[in-house]
Amino acid sequence: MSLEILRAGLQTTIQDLGRFGVAHLGISASGASDNLAMRIGNLIVGNPENTTAIEMTLTGDTVLFHSNAFIALAGSKFKIDLDEKPFPFWSGTYISAGQVLTIGPTLKGARCYLCVRGGLQVKNIINSTSTHLTSRMGGLNGSILKKGDGIAFGNLDKVIQPIKNMENYPYTDSTTIRVTKGLQWDWFDNQNRKLFFQKTYQVSTLSNRMGLRLSGESILSSKGNEIITEGMPLGAIQIPGNGQPILSFVEHQTTGGYPKLANVISADLYKVGQLKPGDNFKFQLIDFPEAEKARLEQENYILSLKAHCS
Amino acid sequence: MALNHSPQFILASDRSILVKFGSKISEEIHQRVFAFTDFVLTNRIKSVVNIHPAYSSVLFTLDLNADLNEILSLIKISWDASTQTNIPDSRHVEIPVLYGDGFGEDMDRVSQHTGLNQSEIIQSHEGGSYKVYFTGFSPGFPYIGGMDPSLSTPRLTTPRKQVPAGTIGIAAEQTGIYPLSSPGGWNLIGQTPIKIFDWHHPTDLRLRMGDSIKFISITKEEFDQLKENVT
């Protein structure tokens, strides 16, 4: 069973939930940018959450199915049709061999996921199929998908019951991103912290899976622009010398030398995955217990979906 | 006295914990970071999905199901246990470098900051005895300590969007090599023809944490010769 890319999207990659255990070699986890959407998309077709899927960015692909398939689209809505007829998001749908799914430009956020029952069959590198574009590793030859690429699917033997009626899918509002204090919070005075949380930031066109460069009010450190290089958490907000924040994302550098003012909470990382160049948003500060609460709520939501699967 | 040697345990995000051994780069702190990293890579801590060692700290990142405070306790226990172990052996590695000659875009910037001319910079950089403090930043990137402080030059205020693979750079008191082309804010002074990271063998690094290294200045002819031998 296989599918074929007839027309490639802007930046389409093979992803699972990430490649772990090698950060000490300088290799960050990579994985789905909107991890929540991918986990749910997989559950909808009855796959374990970490099953390999396709991530599409800003403009999707045209996909020919060479065999029957059971698929779901998850994440931001994109313009989409199946043989020129409307096709639903967040819903498990049967496809017949020979049918063509055309996924056009986004209608809202940055990314959507094509999940296929049984998973995509891609070579594992260090226990993951995730494409890491910066290191040209994983996925199909470490690269974005191209016209003519063929991918086998459906070989997974541990599939589960799909979700029948997926009504409660997540609505992604990326206009507020919650953060906790970063490792160098003390490097910034009250005036600069206040500016950071009051002002709106815009995602610049230089943003990618490695990091989002933000433009807006410049933030100045009162203790300089360089720290002794230390480990970089996913979602760290670094302030380089020019004062324009850089948000570290899924292909982030494993260590870094700019002071970190704040860090996106894990429950809001999926929202970052839906931010696209030109989008405006604000940061909101919360404390660690609140961040833990938000994470548990999100994990409980996933658990409630899984309850429908059994 | 043992209390003075205990690191700080700091929440870096709701999914990561920083164990901090101080705020400076030193051989003594490196030995402690190296021993602790070696210990936690061998004796895995539940729910820790990644370990990021650096000059004077180790960052632990956690999976989505772990309780933050529970893992914090486990990391503290692990630290206590690690103090009983020996530091692993280190290797010696030589790295050929073509300094300047079209590969040192920031040689003039380093000159301005240090007051040294190009040949003095090369002499000083080549003359040092270096240590790989850790690998991090990007795949296989070695953070190398031991550079003469007189070469110290601040990072670029706006990072470059692309730096070629094999480039040797200086950032403040640190020197390093870019194993792959990537964005970066270091001052570029030369290039090695040797492949530092090979994505076909991602876990088999040319330079590893704890290695001692020596830079050997080579000519353009030698560079081209060695470059041809790299597959």
Largest sheet of chain A: 7 strands, antiparallel
Shape of chain B: elongated
Strand sequence of the main sheet of chain A, in spatial order?
7-6-9-4-1-12-11
Looking at the structure, the CATH topology of the largest domain in chain B is Cyclophilin
N- to C-terminal separation of chain B?
Answer: 52 Å
Q: Average pLDDT value of chain A?
A: 94
Query: What share of residues of chain A is helical?
Result: 10-25%
Low-confidence stretches of chain B: none
Domain unit count of chain B = 2
Would you write up a description of this structure?
The complex is a heterodimer of chains A (310) and B (231). Chain A is an alpha+beta fold. Helices cover 15% and strands 29% of the residues of chain A. In chain A, 53% of the residues are buried. The model of chain A has no long low-confidence stretch (mean pLDDT 94). Helix content of chain B is 26%, strand content 29%. Chain B is an alpha+beta fold and 231 residues long. A seven-stranded mixed β-barrel of chain B has the order 5-12-9-10-7-6-13. A four-stranded antiparallel beta sheet of chain B has the order 1-2-4-3, with helices on one face. Chain B folds into two domains: 2-82, 2-Layer Sandwich (Gyrase A, domain 2); 92-229, Cyclophilin-like (Cyclophilin). At the A-B interface, strand 16, strand 19, strand 20 and helix 4 of A face strand 1, strand 2, strand 3 and strand 4 of B.
SSE blueprint:
The complex is a heterodimer of chains A (310) and B (231).
Chain A: E1 2-7, E2 13-15, H1 35-44, E3 53-57, E4 62-65, E5 69-75, E6 78-82, E7 85-86, E8 93-95, E9 100-106, E10 111-116, E11 120-121, E12 150-153, E13 176-181, H2 190-198, E14 201-203, E15 211-215, E16 230-231, E17 236-238, E18 246-248, E19 255-256, E20 260-264, H3 269-272, E21 280-285, H4 288-309
Parallel strand pairs in A: 13-21
Antiparallel strand pairs in A: 1-4, 1-12, 2-3, 3-10, 4-9, 5-8, 5-10, 6-7, 6-9, 11-12, 13-20, 14-15, 14-21, 15-18, 16-19, 17-18, 17-20
Helix pairs in contact in A: 1-4
Chain B: E1 8-13, E2 16-20, H1 27-42, E3 48-53, E4 57-62, H2 68-82, E5 92-99, H3 107-114, H4 118-127, E6 130-135, E7 142-145, E8 160-163, E9 167-171, E10 174-177, E11 182-184, E12 187-191, E13 212-217, H5 220-229
Parallel strand pairs in B: 5-13
Antiparallel strand pairs in B: 1-2, 2-4, 3-4, 5-12, 6-7, 6-13, 7-10, 8-11, 9-10, 9-12
